[in-house]
Design goal:
Blueprint (H helix, E strand, L loop, with lengths): L9 H10 L5 H11 L11 H10 L5 E8 L5 E7 L4 E9 L2 E5 L3 E3 L14 E4 L2 H14 L11 E4 L9 H12 L11 E5 L3 H7 L7 E5 L5 H7 L8 H15 L3 E7 L7 H11 L4 E7 L13 H13 L4 E3 L21
Parallel strand pairs: 4-7, 7-8, 8-9, 9-10, 10-11, 11-12
Antiparallel strand pairs: 1-2, 2-3, 3-4, 5-6
Helix pairs in contact: 1-2, 4-5, 6-8, 9-10
The protein binds S-adenosyl-L-homocysteine.
The site of S-adenosyl-L-homocysteine (SAH) has 18 residues, from β8 and β10.
């Protein structure tokens, strides 16, 4: 695979243009063109410069190979990378805008028992430009541009563990928020981690005040380890400390994901314990009923159980919401994304 030009910042592209002996305004044309989702071959620059770029970089690092549309309007995209690897992404429509869920790795090695992304392990990390490319091609396909974006919010909740691909993810976030491009506000971006504590602490120093989301799914380390092997490496207490530090550095309240699994973590006693754990912290809890993944024998709770859990948390003073599952009929719901090898 050649290099990915969408990995590069505006300043790095300026250096490439300068080294090629071209006028400096070409750099802005290239950066803007790429951010509009254009291929190198479509950039409005002299043919010689285009040819030089195509020699060194992938013309189309992320392609939409298939689009699936759910009854609820959610779209799932199958993206093909330049080396033939496939990843998936989802676009959800809300009243306030469209949220795209992007993948950060081909597969995942965290091994969560309820998640499809991890079934085949991790094949490779995505580069910064391959993560960004998913947004660029969808924004374009949906009729968006740099002024009027069709993708208004981004969540790093597709396949992969973002903090297991730290450098590329941070670089991606810098390019996604950079002026002159998509220029998305960090407030419209959510990053979800299974709780890699050292990277959480490091990320607090990056100056990117996004919505930090942690997949908790249990109230004790022992119970957590039953479904999340990462619990053997990092304790809930240390995760909470890292969250507190993130709040201290960024002023951003943090979010916990809690997927309700039948017979596992969804009793009222769990709700009470969760409330005790989080009481007084500047956080919010996102509940979701586990989505069935056919290779896994875990299942989600009933709607009634989920409502009762939510009520108990709220009664105990915890800010919480129960999320609707979107796109489950097209395999696009939380935890259902997987690299599917067609052809
Ligand atoms: N690796 C990151 C982000 C990817 S998963 C993380 O662990 O946070 C995004 C969210 O979906 C996580 O909260 C994850 O635990 C949750 N999830 C995974 N499988 C699920 C399933 N089958 N049903 C509901 N949520 C699931």
């Amino acid at each position: 695979m050649k290099d990915v030009l969408q990995d590069r910042s505006a300043a790095e592209i300026a250096a490439i243009v300068e080294a090629a002996g071209e006028k400096s305004f070409r750099a802005r044309q290239i950066f803007e063109g790429l951010m509009q989702g254009k291929k190198i071959a479509e950039l409005p620059v002299p043919p010689a410069l285009r040819a030089l770029l195509i020699e060194q970089f992938e013309d189309e690092p992320v392609k939409i190979r298939e689009t699936f549309v759910s009854r609820d309007g959610t779209k799932k995209f199958l993206f093909e990378l330049a080396d033939g690897n496939l990843v998936e992404g989802v676009l959800m429509r809300y009243k306030y805008g469209n949220t795209q869920c992007v993948s950060t790795q081909v597969g995942c090695r965290m091994g969560c028992k309820f998640c499809a992304s991890t079934l085949g392990g991790r094949l490779r990390d995505l580069t910064a430009g391959e993560i960004l490319g998913q947004i660029l091609v969808v924004n374009r396909a949906e009729g968006g541009n740099l002024k009027e974006r069709a993708v208004t919010n981004v969540v790093l909740m597709g396949s992969g563990e973002p903090f297991d691909n730290y450098q590329n993810v941070v670089k991606f976030l810098r390019n996604l928020t950079a002026e002159g491009g998509i220029a998305m506000s960090a407030r419209n971006i959510s990053l979800s981690t299974c709780g890699l504590v050292p990277e959480m602490l490091k990320f607090a120093e990056e100056g990117i005040p996004l919505n930090l989301t942690v997949s908790l799914h249990a109230v004790t380390d022992g119970e957590r380890a039953r479904t999340m092997p990462v619990a053997n490496r990092y304790k809930i207490a240390d995760i909470l400390q890292a969250c507190a530090y993130y709040f201290e550095r960024t002023g951003r309240r943090y979010i916990f994901e809690y997927s309700l699994i039948e017979g596992e973590n969804a009793d009222l006693a769990h709700a009470a314990a969760l409330a005790d754990l989080l009481k007084g912290k500047p956080c919010h809890v996102n509940l979701i009923r586990l989505n069935a993944v056919k290779e896994r024998d875990l299942s989600g709770t009933s709607e009634e159980t989920a409502q009762a859990f939510l009520k108990e948390l709220t009664r105990r003073g915890i800010s919480a919401t129960l999320r609707r599952s979107m796109g489950s009929d097209i395999g696009g719901a939380c935890g259902q994304l997987r690299a599917r090898y067609i052809s």
